[in-house]
């Protein structure tokens, strides 16, 4: 993978992919917890007794040990999933032997082996449903660069557009 990249670029790309996959795993875990605690199940069960807090809780860190260990397992799973992907023999895939150049078919085929990487691929390969944000940027650039301001330095134009987009 990444044939023409240097080792540093490859390591950076792998780090970014691991972070994205870990983020997707966290989101999936949160979604699963919300499904378990749906309003129907909460209303049908009795409310549990409140747990009394110790006076030393104000000195505790924001992340407790259980939270830290679950994040660690998510990071390990993300690393393992990327390693499995890197060790795949891509010549055996059905979708690569076809004349179809659709990477989403490859990820659909690999979904049982790599449960989170296809979600990342869908995010990367998806097409935005609206071009409003892009049109807004071009519109603001058209407002900044008028006939009277035709000789503005490009870096100045970028600065003006950045300030206008931050103010909006």
Gist?
By secondary structure, the chain is mainly alpha-helical.
Structure, explained:
The protein is mainly alpha-helical. It folds into two domains: about 5-45 and about 65-125, no CATH class; about 130-165, no CATH class. The protein is built from eight helices and no strands. The protein starts with 6 loop residues before the first helix and ends with a helix. About 5% of the residues are buried. The model has no long low-confidence stretch (mean pLDDT about 75).
> What's the helix-strand series?
HHHHHHHH
Total E-strand runs: 0
Mean pLDDT across the residues is 74
Roughly what fraction of the amino acids lie in strands?
under 5%
Radius of gyration over all CA atoms, rounded: 24 Å
Uncertain stretches: none
**Helix share bin:** 55-70%
Contiguous helical run count: 8
Task: Report the end-to-end length measured between terminal Cα atoms.
Answer: 41 Å
Structural class: mainly alpha
How many separate domains? Answer: 2
Shape: elongated
Report on the biggest sheet: none
